[in-house]
Amino acid sequence: MTRIFSGVKPTGHLTLGNYLGAVRRWADVDQHRAEALFCIVDLHALTVDHDPGRVRRLSRQAATLLLASGLDPELCTVFVQSHVDEHARLSYLLECVATDGEMRRMIQYKEKAALERKRGGSVRLSLLTYPVLMAADILAYGTDEVPVGDDQTQHVELTRDLAVRFNQRYGHTFVVPRATRPEVAARVMNLQEPTSKMGKSDDVGPGVVYLLDEPDTVRKKIMRAVTDSGQDVAYDPEERPGVSNLLEILAACEGSDPAALSEAYTSYGALKKDTADAVVELLRPVQDRHKQLCADPSSVEGVLREGARRARAMARPTVDSAYEAIGLLAPSDG
Ligand code: TRP
Q: Which of 144, 153, 322, 329 has the fewest CB atoms within 10 Å, i.e. is most exposed?
C-alpha cells in the first residue's frame, strides 16, 4: 500500500488556507486510499525565535484540529514528531550525507535567514539544517508520497537526492519519495494581500481566516477583503487576484469551479456575502468537533500516545538499518 507522510508545523494557528489546501484532502481522500501518517512537526518550530509555552499550546491545538477536521486514528496515524526519537536519530546520519553547499542553496533558508539578519537577530544553525530533519521525517517511514505545497517541493527534491546518495553509497536503505500536488487543491491567498499565500506564520490577522475564528470575525475579514479595480466579477488570478481568490474560496467550499461561478455574480458585495456564508458553514462542524475534543483532552492525548507508538514501530527498523549500513556498530543485545 502507498505510504503518505505530511507534516504541520506548530508555528501559528491553522488557517482556512491549510484546511482547503491540504487538511481537508488528507481527511477526505488520503487516509482512505493509503497508509498515511500526519505529524505535528514540533522540532521544526524551534528553528526561529520561539516562545516555549506557545509552541506547546499550538502543538496540542494542531493535533486537536486535525482530528476535528476528520482525520480518523482508526485509518491513519496522527502523532507528534518529538515523541518519536527516530527523527532526530536519522537526521544526524543524513547530515553526514548532505553537503553544506546544498543546504545554503535552499530558497526558504535564504529568505528566512535574510529576514532574521535584517531584524538584527542571529540565525539558528537548525534553520540551515532543517531540510535534513524534514528528509529524516520522510525517509524514516519508507514514504512514497509527500503531499506538500509549492514552497516545499525543493525540500522534497533534496530528500530524494539524499535518499539516492545514501542508497548508492551504503546499500539500498530508503524508499525514494515524491512530492504530490493534488490536482484540485485550492490555493487560498491572503485576503488583504491576494498575491501572497494565506500562511499561518505571517501572523497578520485581517487577511487570514483561522479555523477557530468566530463566525462574526470570519464575516468581517471576508467582507473587508481587498478586491480589484474594475466592476465585473471575473476569474483571472493574474490580473484580478482579489476577486479570483474569493471565487477560489467559494468554489472550494461548494465543490464547484471558480471560473464557472464568476458568471453568477455581477457585484463584489454579493460574492463576498456568499463566500462569507459558505466559509462559516464549512468551519462550523470543525469548530463543534474541536470544542467537544477540548472538553475531553485525555482522548486527544490517547490518540497521540498510540500514534507515537505506531510511528516508532514503523520507523525503528529503517533507522536501525541505516545505522548499520553507514558503518555504526550495532549494540549487542543483553
Ligand atoms: N517543512 C514543512 C512546512 O514548513 C513541514 C514539514 C516538516 C513537512 N517535515 C515534513 C512536510 C515532512 C511534509 C513532510 O510546511
A: 329
Q: Each residue of 162-206: pLDDT tens digit?
A: 999 999 999 999 999 999 987 656 789 999 999 888 876 655 678
Report which ligand 1 atom has the smallest distance to the Cα of 131. 1
Ligand 1 pocket test: pick from 8, 9, 175 the residue with the most ligand atoms within 8 Å of its Cβ: 9
Q: CA of 166: how far to CAs of 59, 173, 327, in Å?
A: 32, 8, 12
Q: Which CATH architecture has domain 215-292?
A: Orthogonal Bundle (1.10)
* Residue pLDDT, tens place only, 114-146: 998 999 989 999 999 999 999 999 999 999 999
Among 188-202, 204-218, 223-237, the least confident range: 188-202
- Domain ranges for the chain, please list them: 3-181+297-326, 215-292
Are residues 68 and 58 in contact, defined by beta-carbon separation less than 8 angstroms? no
**Distance from the CA of 7 to the center of ligand 1, in angstroms?**
5
Averaged pLDDT for residues 203-224: 92
Nearest CA to ligand 1 atom 6: 7
DSSP 21: I
Q: Whose CA is nearest to atom 5 of ligand 1?
A: 7
Give me the amino acid identity at 124: R
